[in-house]
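pinning this so it doesn't scroll away 📌
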Amino acid sequence: MPLKFSIFLVLILIAGLGSLVSACGSSDSEGEASRGAPSASDFPSAQGKTIEQILTDQTPSDLVVSPAALVFEQGENRYPFGVFNVDRTQVDDVDVALYFAKTPQSKVEGPLPAEVVSLETKPAYRSKGAEAPGEANSFYVVNPVKFDRPGPWLGIAVIKDGDETSASRLPSPVVGQFPNIAQVGEKAPKISTPTAADVGGDLSKIDTRQPPSSMHDVSLDEVLGKKPVVLVFATPALCKSRVCGPVVDVAEQVKDEVGDGVAFIHNEVYNDNDPNKGIRPQLTAFGLQTEPWIFLINKDGTIEQRVEGAIGVDELKADVEKLKQKNGL
């Protein structure tokens, strides 16, 4: 059965979106543009209000806010999402803050302003088709969102466009819904991953990116427990959301810029790169039901961090630097 996409990814697949327009701002990456989070004071206060009151105090929004992740745990979470017009084109030039509550009567967490993050890389790391219509090049993210209890939560987004504000409901995040996915602090599954040697150098058999990524030199079981690892599960050509390709491009740039001492491994999603043949056993071993995913693994084999969905160069670079520092590199 083909891998199940997150709500946001399914929406993009259905919509057949055109390319995104980069947000204003600056970054260390050539050609990349991001925008920092606005001030929480720009949005309605949650003090003394229920989440429904905050929602009804605002004009209903014509925009749709859709999460780019499904997996949330008790504690701090990274919450990526996309914003869409009614004609299904994507928007990245409005300010957004999220609000969450466990029940209609419970205390509201928010406002949590979101930043806009670019998926663009330096030209040398862009795969073919990276700038084609429909290829995602930015997303919104709130980090962290704190969920202090398991189960379903209520969520809304307040959107500020100039001086006007409006609100939209979010699909309910369900905390602890996917306990079988490899967890932070656990030992990573010691599995083999396909290498260039396994396919006689024909990387097209194990990589749908054009050109193939440079992350097929070693198998996970060869380096697990010996050196830090960045493991990327993504399928650039078959990820109809158009998120996987940019994520692999991002990993390529980060590997070259700060990846010394760290094994970077890219693993495709489908057997024989054919969605009709089911997912590869490596994803099953990690308990995955969505993609893309990145696992950052310590040299002792424990999972230090995991990231679902889109990630930009600056964020992944910082994550890899932290991984190296923890492992004495």
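📌 and the second one:
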Amino acid sequence: MALTRAGAVVQLVARDNKYFLVKLTSGQRLETHRGIFQHDALIGRPLGSEVFSHLGHAFYLIEPSTDDLIREIKRSSQIIYPKDSGFILMKLSVQPGQTVLEAGTGSGGMTTVLAQMVGPTGHVYSYDIREDMQKNARRNLERIGLAERVTFKLRDIAQGFDEVDADAFFLDVPNPWDYTGVVRQALKGGGFFGSILPTTNQVSTLLVALQRDGYEFVEVCEVLLRYYKTVPERLRPTDRMVAHTGFLIFGRPVTRAQVAGPEAAAQPATAPTNLAEPDSAAPWDAGAPDAAEDAAS
């Protein structure tokens, strides 16, 4: 049976989904409009158990999800939505023990997700030009006990990065096309690159830069998310949907072969990339049967 411990971040959730996030500290108490909780009374309790405030209001004591942690951070800028950050982790192949860089710390939402994923043996280096942003992000990471996994660096990234051979890099700035060259120098060969942009014209400019600076396997996508009302008798979508939040762009820096001799004349000026229209709707659909085959089966 898992028990709560001092220093852990827990969540108190009522049946109407009202919740409070708290870092358990001996001798402290949580004051809410539904009553007071003494931290000492919560420390050592089984996770998942029902607890009551001094006014008798019932809450469940549970471990917060990463989604919960991100939603509760103090924001000084727009954060990356959980629906996007989870997909970004997969596309960048972020794993425990890795070195991951990001530029554009913001409020630290994506920083939190990266720090949690690299684990205690990995490390995240986060660059931003605004000191106030990084101070807020650092406080957010300290609150949930992940600050030791992150090094914050205050710098104009046009000057480049201190790290080399990083496993992955996430670039969250309005003009990423200006930095694809210096990002490439920080990434290991074939490393994972990702970025997020709100508009199609920005994406087009970034695609040109990625081709120019030797990135291949480029993809552009967006993630749409729809929730459903959990009432068995009338299951249907909720009234609001988290639709477009940003375009996600991914690529891998590679070294193109330099062809010498008579064969060079037959080579195009720029090595072909996969920036042209793909043959299928998505990379994983390449081996799927087409509609005619489906109909015939």
